[in-house]
Amino acid sequence: MSLTGSKSKVPADITSLLSTSEKTGAQLRNEKVEVPQLEGKSFLRSAFQDMLIAMPHIFAAGRKGEEEGLGNEPKLVIAFDEAHPLSKLSSQGFRPLHILGRVINSYSRKNDAPVWVVFTSTTSQVANFSAPQVIHDSQRVAVAGELLFPPYTNLSWDQFAIPLRDISANDVAKFHHIVAFGRPLWKSHVQEQVVDGVMELAAQKLCKSKTFDPKATNQALAVLSQRFGLDICFGHPDAVSYIETGVASHLRVCFSTTDDRIWSFTGYPSEPLLPCVAAILLHETPGHLKQALLVLREKIDGGMVEIGQSGELTSRLLLLLAKDLFVRQKPSKGAIQDLHCNRGGDTELLDCQKVSVIKFLEYLFGTTFWSKAGEEAKTVFQHAYINFSHWVSMTEFISPSDNLTAEGSSARCNAQEWTLRHWHRTSAVQCCHLQPLVDKMIPIYFDDPVLDSDDMKRVSQIFISDQAGKNRNVRELNRITRTHDTIQCPSDLPYIALLLDLNVVLDPQLNVTFPKRHPAHLETDRCLRIYASGMSNTTFPFLNQHADVASLLRGLLSRETEAPSQTTLQALVKFGSTARLHNLRWEAQKTSQLES
Q1: Other CB atoms within 10 Å distance of the CB of residue 237
Q2: Of 466, 462, 422, whose CA–CA distance to 318 is shortest?
Q3: Contact 426, 461 (CB under 8 A)
Q4: Which pLDDT value is given to residue 24?
Q5: 17 contact partners, CB below 8 Å, separation of at least 6
Q6: In angstroms, rounded to a whole number, what is the distance separating the alpha carbons of residues 562 and 433?
Q7: pLDDT for position 251
Q8: pLDDT for residue 362
Q9: Radius of gyration of the chain (CA)
Q10: In Å, how far are 106, 315, 372, 430 from 475, measured between CA atoms?
Q11: For residue 180, which of 19, 300, 352 has the smallest C-alpha distance?
């Protein structure tokens, strides 16, 4: 299809209207706009009718469905991917979208066949996908202050995910299970249950490159965000451009937009395949992890990435990187640990495999850990495993206050199901900021043949509290309990409480206690309590072999510094936002003026 005279000069009256967007809707309705005619309109309509006649088994079924109330189900979908270039204005005064829109209108007018045309794009420009006033009369609505055709972002999630009861907790690391979570793109590329090509595709889309460059800011942050739940400070001047680039090029998901399209809500939801791909990229060469963490430190120092009030980001990095490094010491044979794997769907992903709690804590805290905890503790946890590959963030308490009154999908699932679902997704939890007592939860699964075969009765938790003060908070460890009103995770199995006092500099310590069994003491109260203070090689011996990582993690413990461009004015207009002098002493304004 083409526009008659499309190669000629645009009429003067149309050209003039292109620059009069400030006119009111009434003015535009009263002006006559020359609308170019489409060539081949009758041929197009005839061809469309011929299609309907040639495929009665499809479109006749659509009319039958209409009688049954199913007439809106599409029978033919024409999809335009990366559609945003269609809205770019040509040198001749029109956009390709104008022609395409009129083509669709010409064959669909006076025809109720269920033929859909879908425009998709990862760039935020698609949010402005509406025609200019001079071409479409219907755009007069937009002149009145409303935008046409809001983008559709509710594209669902986990369409192919295997139901919880249909797969054993021991099999959740298998590729065919992990690839089914998240967007359907990954599962749709699996051919004959073979891994081949899917991991490479995911890496290329995550990085928007065939190779990972850890020094490239957007690539490094995309890879780290998939695993460590980076929180972006939306007041930072670079935040908007980073988020838009992330959605357009690095698999960040747009959840919704405001009606005026000014704000969009985005993030990296739990999608277990991508954290595994990100882990492979980070550990592909010895220098990748260091370079990516340097990029992260720069963004934290500049104020774009938040570290949390108590060093929550640092502990997320510490714990998950410790697991990464542990499983890569002696990776299990046959596990997927590179992007070019070409095995069957039953192959396990290295970063989703279950890891012995006994061996992990020994790696994290040193070979003397279990001698401090005692033989009974080691025996109790001999069948306990963890498998987390990424962190997800909560927005409310683990057990919200309306737990007893909420109904339907708003009701809280029981503690066992909550824990088991995170195990199946290989996710660990970053609690909301106001959650009392604990800041994180890592699922534990007991693969003990003595226990009930029901997986829901085999789960427990590691609850973690983050502290970033200079003074020790060892007493806070004994306050951690999983029966608190906002937690409510009772179980017949023991659990672990870990307090990380990472910012303590002097005399780092590691204390471990485990109560001895008493005939009158319920099993539900048995807790291995661990107090670890200081980001030191003494507390965390594995850091001895990774000096660069240790140094960077210590640097992240401090609060983010003010941006280099911070002025006295910028500090004072944030009066009261902190208890620091530069946000409180207005006398500094005079001092600043004298110095300048």
Answers
A1: 11
A2: 466
A3: no
A4: 45
A5: 28, 31, 33, 133, 134
A6: 22
A7: 94
A8: 97
A9: 29
A10: 74, 19, 19, 22
A11: 352
pLDDT the model gives residue 88 = 80
d(CA 146, CA 149): 10
Question: Do 233 and 304 meet the contact criterion of CB atoms below 8 Å apart?
Answer: yes
At 470, list the tokens: 């200079």
Q: Is 565 exposed, middle or buried (0-12, 13-18, 19+ CB in 10 A)?
A: exposed
pLDDT of amino acid 425: 96
Task: Return the axis-axis angle of helices 41-54 and 56-67, rounded to nearest 10°.
Answer: 80
The whole-angstrom separation of Cα 509 and Cα 507 is: 6
Task: Specify the DSSP class assigned to residue 112.
Answer: -
SS3 117: strand
- Sequence-separated (6 or more) residues with CB below 8 Å from residue 482: 461, 463, 488, 489, 490, 491, 495
Angle, alpha carbons 260-238-309 (nearest 5°): 100
For the chain, what's the residue count?
596
Quote the pLDDT of residue 341.
87
Nearest to 305 by CA among 232, 218, 391, 216: 232
Contact indicator for 420, 405 with CB cutoff of 8 Å: no
Q: Where are the alpha helices (DSSP H) in 208-348?
A: 217-228, 239-249, 273-282, 286-301, 312-327
State the sign of the Cα–Cα–Cα–Cα dihedral 364, 365, 371, 377. Answer: negative
Report the distance separating Cα 252 and Cα 245, nearest Å.
9
* Amino acid in the structure at residue 247: V
129, two tokens: 């996908």
Tokens describing residue 338: 């590179």
Residue 574 is predicted with a pLDDT of: 63
Closest CA to 461 of 397, 501, 417, 502: 417
Give dist(CA 441, CA 371) in Å, integer.
Answer: 25
**Residue 26, phi then psi, degrees to nearest 5:** -65, -40
pTM for this structure?
Answer: 0.81
**Helix or strand holding residue 111 (H, E):** none
Q: Exposed (0-12), middle (13-18) or buried (19+): which is 181, by Cβ within 10 Å?
A: buried
Measured from the Cβ of residue 539, the count of other Cβ atoms closer than 10 Å reads 21
Q: Which residues pair with 267 in a beta bridge?
A: 253
Q: What is the DSSP letter of 311?
A: S
Burial tier of 584 (Cβ tally within 10 Å: 0-12, 13-18, 19+): middle
Directed axis angle between helix 547-556 and helix 312-327, to 10°?
Answer: 160
Cβ atoms of 490 and 483 within 8 Å: the answer is yes
Mean pLDDT by runs of 10 across the 596 residues of the chain is: 33 37 46 61 85 83 54 80 81 79 81 82 59 44 50 80 95 96 92 84 96 97 97 89 91 82 83 97 95 96 89 95 96 92 92 98 97 95 97 92 64 90 96 94 97 96 89 88 94 96 86 77 75 93 94 78 47 61 64 52
Q: Which two tokens stand for residue 80?
A: 């335009």
Closest to 105 in 3D by CA, of 32, 43, 45, 63:
45
Determine contact, residues 196/171, Cβ cutoff 8 Å: no
**Does residue 319 contact residue 442 with C-beta atoms inside 8 Å?**
yes
Q: How many CA atoms lie within 13 A of 416 on its CB side?
A: 13
Task: Say which residues have a Cβ less than 8 Å from residue 546's Cβ, sequence separation at least 6.
Answer: 325
Q: How far apart are CA 358 and CA 354, in angstroms?
A: 12
The two tokens of residue 458 are: 């085999």
Query: Tokens 């073979």 map to which residue?
Result: 194
